Amino acid sequence: MKIALIGDLHGNRAATLALEEDLLRTQPDKIICLGDVAGKGPCNDFTCDWAFQHCHHLIAGNWDVGLVSRMFPKDVPYWEQLGETRLQKLADLPLEMELTLSGRRIRLIHGRPVMRELIHMSSPREDIDQLFIREDGTRWDVVAYADTHRQGMRTITPGLLLNCGSVGNALGLPLCCYAILEGDDTADADAPFEVRFRQLPYDRAMAIRDAEEHPEIPRIESFIREVETGRYSRH
Predict the structure, then answer these.
(1) What integer pLDDT is reported at residue 215 of this predicted model?
(2) Residue 26: how many CB atoms within 10 A of its CB?
(3) Which end of the chain, N or C, is less surrounded by CB atoms within 10 Å?
(4) E-assigned strands of 14-147?
(5) Pairing label, strands 152-155, 160-163
(6) Radius of gyration for the chain, computed over Cα atoms and rounded to the nearest angstrom
(7) What averages of pLDDT result for each successive group of 10 residues across the chain (235 residues)?
């Protein structure tokens, strides 16, 4: 079983098109979106529609939740781009899901709003541990999330924390980033389990042109700088 984990498309049409082309090469059995299909970038209707059309499962990210709750004034163009039908689809998304692969219980979240604050690979162990503990005291074996826009993986005793990276707003590397999980679709804990990170070039000039055509979107200049450099710019 091969599962593509994608997240943080953020209205980046060019990066999403590059992702679509690469998925035709990698041929995953399932595509799971870890949230934030819209917001920040200019082509939110496109990326939202693409995610609902192509992904087998979607969970809500902090931007998805914020857009549904109208976190911006009414005159911000997100509402016109998305429309009520798309917003209702976003409102119906769960905040997390679970799957089993090669006998491993895998928790899938976006990050926020399930987490209060951003957790990075370098975060203190006590902050990371809370992501692995169930309410009944049992543990997940793997926690996969998005939110920070940076790919990464860290082993926890016992367990594995991984971030799939961002399709449309990657930091560190200004590329289209996602992850692939591969393993046995059984409860056999002795079966191999593999994590692969994909990093793809995409037409960033197209993404910048799209953004420049929507100067009314809040902080669109910051989005352009992040696409150009891979450096967070909204301080």
Answers:
(1) 92
(2) 13
(3) C
(4) 30-33, 57-58, 96-101, 104-109, 142-145
(5) antiparallel
(6) 17
(7) 98 98 98 96 97 98 91 73 94 96 96 90 91 86 97 92 98 96 86 96 98 92 96 81
Measured distance CA(132)–CA(116) in Å, rounded:
15
* Sheet bearing 104-109, strands edge to edge: 96-101, 104-109, 142-145, 160-163, 152-155
Q: Helix-strand-coil percent breakdown of the chain, rounded to 5?
A: 30, 25, 50
Q: Sheet containing 176-183: which strands, arranged edge to edge?
A: 57-58, 30-33, 2-6, 176-183, 193-200
Domain ranges of the chain: 2-96+165-227
Domain 2-96+165-227, CATH number (from 3.40.50.1000, 3.60.21.10, 3.90.1700.10, 3.90.650.10) = 3.60.21.10
Q: Are 156 and 126 in contact (CB under 8 A)?
A: no
Round to whole Å and give the CA distance between 61 and 95.
7
pLDDT at 75: 61
- Residue 117 near residue 147, CB atoms below 8 Å: no
DSSP state of 201: -
d(CA 42, CA 40) in angstroms, rounded, equals 7
Instruction: Look up the pTM and report it.
Output: 0.95
What pLDDT shows up at residue 74?
63
Structure tokens at 90: 């976003």
The reported pLDDT for the residue numbered 102 is 95
